[in-house]
Write a structure and sequence with these properties.
two-stranded antiparallel sheet; Rossmann fold; 19% strand; alpha/beta
């Protein structure tokens, strides 16, 4: 066997060995030992919330291809690419196992001081204060300012059938609101432990109650724990009444004993990705 063939076989054996590894570094970019690893880079737009910090995860093979990719926008982005959720590690594992299509993540940071204002579509009482009410402004800034720059800078599939938004707790309410209110932009929704009852009102339920099916999300994922987590049963019933089918275009998961916590969301994060970005035909628009 000549030297060139021996080198080629060695590289192939290394690739098989690395593909079998189950752990990757927590730091999104400490993947140098992997072949064709994903990559995370900082991103900001001056006109979007005064250069609000974002991070963009690009899947394995992005820099070596010309293909375009679906996109998932993530609330509380300062957490999702850290050790708290490790979304990049989860994505990479599911992509490499063939369970999901390669996708781009856009993680949007959220200062604690602005979280209620940005994520709550309407104001409501919380611990003796009235908070929230800026959710509409925030989702429009995301749609009209951040997303066009992401689509310009990266090779995205910009239509709503390939554009998702997801969040946890109040961010889950925001993701649902974005999917309903900006129905021509976000077709894929991931509402994780969503605070549907924010402000002690049922206003989020007005959307599936009154809108025609074409103006509702294409795929809707929601999850929660039980008994100490947010209720998602009413939303499931309303979506089913509008023609959604569990396991087809709706996935509603309640986990017995799961708490309202970031670790619980991290545990269910792969389920959300499999449902919204699993290897199947794109949902009809």
């Amino acid at each position: 066997m000549n030297r060139a063939k021996r080198v080629l076989l060695a590289v192939a054996a290394l690739a098989v060995s690395l593909a079998g590894c189950s752990k990757v570094p927590t730091d999104p970019n400490e993947n140098g030992w992997r072949l064709l690893s994903g990559h995370v880079e900082p991103f900001s737009v001056p006109a979007f919330r005064n250069s609000r910090a974002c991070w963009v995860y690009l899947p394995p093979g992005y820099t070596h291809s010309t293909r375009r990719y679906p996109v998932l926008y993530l609330a509380d982005g300062h957490r999702v690419l850290t050790a708290e959720v490790q979304a990049n590690r989860i994505c990479e594992a599911l992509i490499r196992s063939g369970e999901i299509e390669p996708l781009i993540l856009v993680a949007i940071s959220e200062p604690d001081s602005e979280r209620f204002w940005d994520y709550a579509p309407w104001s409501g009482p919380y611990r003796g204060e009235v908070l929230g009410g800026g959710g509409d402004l925030f989702v429009r800034a995301l749609r009209d300012t951040l997303k066009p720059e992401i689509d310009r800078r990266f090779r995205t599939l910009p239509d709503r059938a390939h554009t998702g938004i997801a969040g946890y707790s109040l961010g889950g309410l925001f993701a649902a609101y974005a999917g309903f209110e900006c129905d021509s932009t976000f077709g894929l929704v991931g509402a994780c432990s969503p605070t549907y009852a924010w402000g002690f009102t049922s206003r989020i339920y007005d959307y599936p109650s009154t809108r025609s099916r074409p103006r509702l999300p294409l795929l809707y994922y929601q999850d929660t724990g039980y008994p100490r987590d947010n209720s998602i049963g009413q939303m499931e019933q309303l979506l089913v009444s509008r023609g959604f089918m569990n396991g087809i275009d709706l996935q509603s998961i309640t986990v017995e004993g799961a708490e309202h916590s970031i670790p619980a969301w991290e545990h269910r994060f792969p389920d959300m990705l499999r449902f919204l970005f699993g290897r199947r035909s794109a949902p009809a628009d």
